Amino acid sequence: MALVIAIAFLGRLLAMQGEAVTAARDGEARFHALAEAIPQIVWTSTPEGLVDYCNRRWYEFTGLTEEQTLGLGWKNALHPDDQPVVAQNWAKALASGAAFESEYRIRNAAGGLRWHLVRASPMRDPAGTIVKWFGACADIEDQMHTQQVLEDQAKVRSAELAEANTRLQEEMLERDLARRQLDEQNAKMVHELTARSQRATLLAKMGELLQSCVNKDEVFAAALGFAPKIFPTSRGAVALLNPARDLAEVIGSWNDCRLPMPVFESASCWALRTGHPHLVVAGDTTAPCAHAAGVKCTYLCVPILAQGEAFGILHFQAAVEEPVLADAELSLKTTFAGQVGLSVANIRLREALRTQSIKDPLTGLYNRRYLAEMLDREIRRAVRSAQSLGILMLDLDHFKNFNDTYGHEAGDTVLRETASFLIKSIRVEDFACRFGGEEFMVILPTADLNAAHARAERIRSKLRELTVLHRGQSLGMITVSVGVAALPEHGTSAQELIEAADAALYRAKRDGRDRVVDAVPPPAPAAAEVQMGVQIEAQVNAAGMGKS
Q1: Is 271 found in the same domain as 345?
Q2: Annotated catalytic sites, by residue?
Q3: Which domain holds residue 439?
Q4: What's the average model confidence in pLDDT over 184-211?
Q5: Are residues 287 and 368 in the same domain?
Q6: What are phi and psi of 239, to 5 degrees?
Q7: Residue 523 DSSP one-character state
């Protein structure tokens, strides 16, 4: 009975296994039918990774046979460069049981290559054991081509961007460089403008100072003081012509400027010869100034002009750090010399105006206006120092006869020659003036009455020896009457001394002319009014007689 039951169970088990095998075969058949209907490549493999099935799409695409494909033969359809990567990734998937995914190129039947995306997933039994791998290959050639185009475009665009970025960086560098250069130029310009403004201010200050100078020595002292401040990078010197205008002498310099010759002929400077600034560039041998022989740097000679007449030069030498003289420098230096020349011209004009105001135009002697000013000053000085002061009042004898006999031009000649004689006959500290008409006055500082009388006598006697010619004809002997007065014997004011000398002159005329008469001391206070009346009457009578 037990055997029957066992046999019956075994038969049932065999029947169930048969049914399972049949079901499995039916499932595999249905899978293969579905796989053949799919347009992509579909394949399966054993758990060990050996391909045991590929649908018809694989064989049609690759042209391989089943024998060439199953197992590991499928790898031969791959591009040789892709095989190592695919094998490595497939091995990792088999070892880990993770899904497999890879991109590689598969060679088709015509020998061409197309990119495919391959994905495979493990199939497991209820116990979790991998019983099969199911995979599919999708053609991604178009996507890869598009991706490649995009990558190429991206590369081109990246290259363009890189090039644009390079150009931008270069432009930025160029702009930075240009900005720095512009900043440097602006800074340099600001520095130059500031320096030029400061120099212009100094030049204006010098001009104001020069206008207040009273003589040429002050003018050149101021110019030599301002020159190194206005021209700190130049060396220079000032040279003035002598009265004969044939020689020039260096009177001062700045910044260690040295000319080979401290005294040179005026013809050796082109600026003095032409009356215009003369620039000599270093190394130029066209027209160098002989007075600057041996000067190797660029130099400029500017004539100092006063009323169109050159009376000296300003000589400038360029320093090492400034080897050439720019146009602005030339203009500034010319302006500097022009201001000096203008100041000298103003001084000359003032001197001429003062000379006209204090000198007699005919004789060149001091006039009566200056006599009053000078006599008051000399009297104060004599009183302070307790010294004497002599006064000579001279009148030409019979002067009217010269005019009547030879004409007024002859009379003017006599007056001029007499004035010239007086200038030669007095000391440096003495003053000769034309008092009016044919009257002259000589002021003798520190001379007492005796010394003044002796001086008057010498003038009178020497004047007789003077020969005056007019139009080649001698005008005869000239005689003079002289009245002498002295401080303090005859007064302590200009009016007192002049009146005393005039009264003595009147007596000399009255007593026969051609003589020297000393003034008498003033009368006692009791008889002062009477004596004053006598003097006034004498003066009135003398004025009526013309003292001729």
Answers
A1: yes
A2: 438
A3: 362-545
A4: 81
A5: no
A6: -125, 135
A7: P
Regarding whether 396 and 281 lie in a shared domain, the answer is no
Q: How many domains does the chain have?
A: 3
- Residues with Cβ within 8 Å of 412's Cβ and at least 6 positions away in sequence, in order, are 362
Give the type of residue at 118: V
Tens digit of pLDDT for each residue in 223-255? Answer: 888 888 888 878 889 998 888 888 888 888 888
- Residue 20: the pLDDT is 47
> Does residue 104 contact residue 77 with C-beta atoms inside 8 Å?
no
Contact 228, 255 (CB under 8 A): yes
Residues 440 and 526 in one domain: yes
Please give the pLDDT value at position 419.
93
CATH of residue 421: 3.30.70.270
The answer to whether position 161 is within a domain reads: no
Residue 131 included in any domain: yes
Judge if 417 and 509 occupy the same domain: yes
CA distances to 389, 480, 490 from 452, in Å: 8, 16, 13
| Domain membership flag for residue 198 | no
Alpha-carbon distance values, 234 to 223, 289, 297, 305, 326 (Å): 14, 18, 11, 22, 12
Check residue 378 and report its DSSP letter. H
Q: How high is the pLDDT of residue 326?
A: 64
Q: How many angstroms separate the Cα of 273 from the Cα of each of 42, 172, 265, 277, 317?
A: 115, 58, 11, 10, 19
Per-residue pLDDT of 55-64, as tens digits, reads 999 998 989 9
Residues 6+ apart with CB under 8 A from 210: 219, 222, 223, 339, 340, 342, 343
For tokens 């024998």, the residue is 67
Examine residue 154 and state whether it is found in any structural domain, yes or no: no
* Cα–Cα distance for residue pair 303/305, rounded to 1 Å: 6
Q: Same domain, yes or no, for 327 and 399? A: no
Contact of 42 with 54, CB cutoff 8 Å: yes
| Residues 473 and 341 placed together within one structural domain of the fold | no
Nearest to 282 by CA among 253, 248, 325: 325
* Same domain membership, residue 247 and residue 339: yes
- Predicted TM-score of the model (pTM): 0.49
- Pick 28 or 408 by higher pLDDT: 408
Burial of 230: CB neighbours in 10 Å, binned 0-12, 13-18, 19+ = buried
